[in-house]
TrEMBL record:
One of its GO terms (biological process) is phosphorelay signal transduction system. Residues 107-143 form a coiled coil. GO terms for molecular function: kinase activity. This is Diguanylate cyclase. PROSITE patterns: EAL, GGDEF, PAC, PAS, RESPONSE_REGULATORY. Residues 609-860 form the EAL domain. It comes from Arenimonas composti TR7-09 = DSM 18010. It holds the Pfam family PAS.
């Protein structure tokens, strides 16, 4: 049976925004959508349509989202309410969440709408289940009450002063007293001291008003000291003249009901904390804000008396850094200073024990034997009931301490949810730290810490404005040999040693960058002509290589090949500099020279590239290019899901030319722009051909180069191609992660425009670039493609398995699918399926094939 459509009520006055929102929810499944824009229409829809979720704009003419929220909470308080607006600020958004909105989504980031809606529906379902549990509890208690009326209830009578004149024997079971022992005693004496004054006032008030009471719940002290919750119902006893002479009533034990109700409330609060924690991560700019927000959530939403996060410093000592609740409690804990976990004086401290064991430490009572006086005083001094200390991280780097108020203990399920929160804190810490680190890596090489290619391209134009610069490259000879024979760590250390030598040899104020691999680029003010520059660089590189380098305890004789030019005379910008230096460096290596200037010979090589460019232009005009298709499959079912389009060149004399030979030339010359447009047109033609064959749902993905992405008319060209289809087509785009990070802000707009045209976006080679969590959460993408280098190591490296697991979990948490490329054996495919990877492609399942062969192999 088909599932019932999800009923969505939109409070929105803009037809365009209505369409955008509907499109953002297209993949949710069957939906029934009703749109209103006024209070009366909203009330009618809540009554007649009974929506399962409400999506509301914040500001509308004549009606506001805040008023809509009030009406929904009044009429249908259990229905999730989400703001979808372009005008709501952060303060208003937080206020809306505090007033009952489930979430808010900005209209320029509708990719968040689907996961936000699903989370709100899931939370509403959980609340519904809790309500059902509460209803079941009430029903159970009613059944229990009907039975207990004749057996277990305490039936009593008092005189007008409140002294007991009659009791049945149920007091023995309820309070541990024989009935005869209670006759003559004031009934309030059996109450908990904190409840006596309230009950005495209740008795006095009702006596004066000559009436009874029903279902009043209060706490009573059992003879053995434990608390019992009794529900009291009583009526006045009148004499013949109508005067009150006392009360007759019944006390029923509702301890279980009260405890279960408290448990439901506590668990509901904890679920609310966990639900809000995801938003806390996104709003927290750093760890300090994250920890402060966590403690605040635990107190304000979780209902705990206090919460603090202690962190282990570089000296191994624990320090209380963040807290919320009782300010005096936090100040007291901070006043304890640094706690050394290895100090015997602190061994019995709950936080230390939790950190040492890696497990939660429950302190049920502050009278626990062996507890240090400075800790046992917390209960009476600050009104605390119990404490749980939860280690964070593995190995532990911190402790989360949470306290209840007096008379309240932690539930087992509550501790489990707090443990889950501890795991979420650790996860958030890693990603915040990783985001900060990756932001740094955008401008610095990970191995040497020197400026990266991005930083070089920013700094070089500034230097050129101040005069001619000697710009050179130094390439480590036989680096691949060292890397393969000694290991990656040895190669990295060799690069760091050469970086240090170069920094020491370059003149003051020089720029030294490490764009990647085994090459360094440097720049300093020119003093003379090109010949003088070559001589100076020869001396500089000679100083770096005149003595062995000590690498991992081994003396290594290193050699540098160099190339040099004068800029801006010979190259005007960063990309032109890199191309020219690459040509000169290739000649230096071919002739085994230490330094090669960029010369006319290099220009002749460029002329030869022009000839290849001419051949490539002819190839485009004479239809020598072909699209090969490599299939993609659903990981779980092995069902064909689509294909990646790969360009091939069939030269009239040379036959198929390797993509490695001609694609770099296409990119260097800019021909990739026109060829890429042909690829998109051809890919769309193939997808339409398949539709005409009755094969629906197979999507074709084409790759986009950095040159295409930088074209101002790229989006316009895609619009001209795809707009006539009105979003009903099967052409998708794959763009590498590192390419996106070149200009992340502009590229976000490009990706959104492509998605608006009906295409899906895949981030290719994911894991090899520098995308931060902050940027990744904003990218308008549909899937991540795990780089083949990770897939190749999957069956041999536990660290790679862990990394791929984190990538899959991260992608799914952001509502993205995961595709693994380069799958070459069944073991890799099995592991990817177990890790919940959505799609796979690779030689195991199918090599790139011409169209006819592809259709014969996979579509026949």
């Amino acid at each position: 049976m088909a599932p019932s459509p999800l009923r969505i009520l939109m409070v929105e006055d803009s037809p365009d925004d209505q369409a955008l929102i509907s499109r953002a929810l297209a993949d949710v499944g069957p939906m029934s959508v009703r749109v209103v824009a006024s209070e009366s229409a909203l009330r009618d829809a809540l009554r007649d349509f009974a929506p399962q979720a409400v999506l509301s704009d914040f500001s509308m003419p004549g009606f506001s989202g805040q008023r809509a929220l009030e009406i929904v909470q009044e009429v249908s308080p259990d229905t999730p309410f989400l703001f979808v607006s372009g005008t709501i600020g952060e303060e208003r958004a937080i206020e809306a969440l505090q007033r009952g909105a489930a979430d808010y989504v900005l209209k320029d980031n509708l990719r968040r709408l689907r996961p936000a809606l699903e989370r709100a529906l899931r939370n509403a379902s959980e609340r519904s289940e809790l309500a059902k549990a509460a209803a079941a509890l009430r029903e159970s208690e009613e059944r229990f009450r009907a039975i207990a009326e004749t057996t277990g209830d305490w039936i009593w009578q008092t005189d007008k002063e409140g002294r007991l004149t009659y009791c049945n024997e149920s007091t023995r079971d309820l309070l541990g007293y024989r009935a005869s022992a209670l006759i003559g005693r004031p009934i309030v004496d059996l109450l908990l001291a904190e409840d006596r004054e309230r009950v005495r006032s209740l008795y006095t008030q009702h006596f004066a008003e000559r009436r009874g009471w029903r279902n009043d719940v209060s706490r009573w002290r059992h003879a053995d000291g434990h608390l019992v919750w009794l529900e009291s119902t009583a009526k006045p006893m009148l004499d013949a003249s109508g005067e009150i002479i006392g009360y007759r009533g019944v006390q029923r034990d509702v301890t279980l009901r009260v405890k279960q109700a408290e448990k439901i409330e506590h668990l509901a609060r904890m679920h609310a904390v966990l639900s809000s924690f995801g938003n806390a991560i996104l709003r927290s700019r750093d760890l300090h804000a994250l920890f402060d927000m966590t403690c605040r959530l635990l107190v304000e939403q979780g209902g705990f008396a206090g919460a603090v996060v202690s962190r282990r410093g570089s000296d191994g000592r624990l320090r209380v850094g963040h807290g919320f609740g009782d300010e005096a409690l936090t100040a007291y804990l901070q006043g304890l200073g640094a706690i050394a976990p290895d100090d015997p004086a602190w061994q019995s401290l709950p936080s230390v024990q939790a950190l040492a064991s890696g497990s939660p430490r429950l302190l049920a009572d502050f009278d626990e034997p062996g507890l240090p006086e400075l800790w046992s005083c917390l209960g009476p001094r600050f009104g605390l009931g119990s404490q749980v200390s939860l280690p964070i991280g593995n190995p532990g780097w911190g402790v989360l301490c949470v306290w209840t108020g007096q008379g309240r203990r932690f539930e087992d399920e509550e501790i489990e949810l707090l443990e889950r929160l501890g795991g979420e804190i650790d996860y958030a810490r890693k990603f915040i730290a990783q985001s900060d680190h990756l932001e740094h890596l955008v401008f610095h090489n990970q191995t040497t810490g020197l400026p990266s290619r991005t930083a070089l391209h920013q700094e070089l134009p500034i230097r050129l404005r101040h005069g001619t610069q000697v710009v050179g490259v130094a390439d480590v000879d036989r680096f691949r040999y060292f890397n393969q024979s000694r290991g990656r760590g040895f190669g990295d250390q060799l690069l760091r040693e050469f970086a240090a030598r170069l920094q020491g040899a370059l003149p003051p104020g020089a720029l030294l960058a490490h764009p990647g691999d085994d090459s360094f680029v440097f720049s300093f003010a020119a003093e003379g002509d090109a010949e003088a520059a070559v001589s100076r660089v020869e001396v500089l590189l000679g100083e770096c290589c005149d003595r062995p380098l000590l690498v991992d305890g081994e003396l290594v004789r290193g050699k540098l090949h160099g190339a040099v030019l004068l800029a801006p005379e010979q190259a005007a910008d960063g990309e032109e500099v890199e191309r020219a230096l690459a040509d000169a460096l290739a000649e230096a290596k071919a002739r085994d020279r230490s330094v090669q200037a960029f010369t006319d010979e290099a220009r002749r090589r460029a002329a030869r590239r022009v000839e290849l460019e001419r051949e490539l232009r002819d190839a485009a005009e004479n239809e020598q290019f072909e699209l090969f298709l490599q299939p993609k499959f659903e990981s779980a079912s092995r069902r064909l899901s689509g294909a990646e389009a790969l360009i091939r060149w069939r030269h009239p004399q040379r036959g198929l030319v390797s993509p490695a030979e001609f694609i770099p030339v296409l990119e260097e010359t800019g021909l990739i722009v026109d060829v890429g447009a042909w690829v998109r047109r051809r890919g769309l033609e193939i997808s339409r051909r398949w539709r005409d064959m009755g094969i629906a749902g197979l999507r074709i993905a084409v790759n986009v180069s950095v040159q295409e992405l930088r074209q101002q008319n790229f989006v316009a060209g895609c619009t001209e191609l795809l707009a006539p289809a009105g979003g009903d087509h099967d052409l998708d785009f794959e763009i590498t992660e590192s390419m996106l990070m070149d200009d992340i802000h502009q590229n976000i707009g490009v990706l959104q425009a492509l998605r608006d045209l009906g295409s899906r976006i895949a981030i290719d080679d994911f894991g090899t670039g520098y995308s931060s969590l902050n940027y990744l959460s904003r990218l308008p993408a549909d899937s991540l493609k795990i780089d083949r280098s990770f897939v190749a190591l999957l069956a041999q490296s536990p660290d790679t398995v862990s990394l791929v697991t984190n990538i899959v979990n991260l992608a799914h948490s952001l509502g993205l699918r995961v595709v693994a490329e380069g799958v070459e054996d069944e073991e890799q495919a099995k592991l990817l399926r177990l890790l919940r990877c959505d799609e796979v492609q690779g030689f195991l399942l199918g090599r790139p094939l011409p169209l006819e062969d592809f259709e014969r192999s996979f579509l026949a």
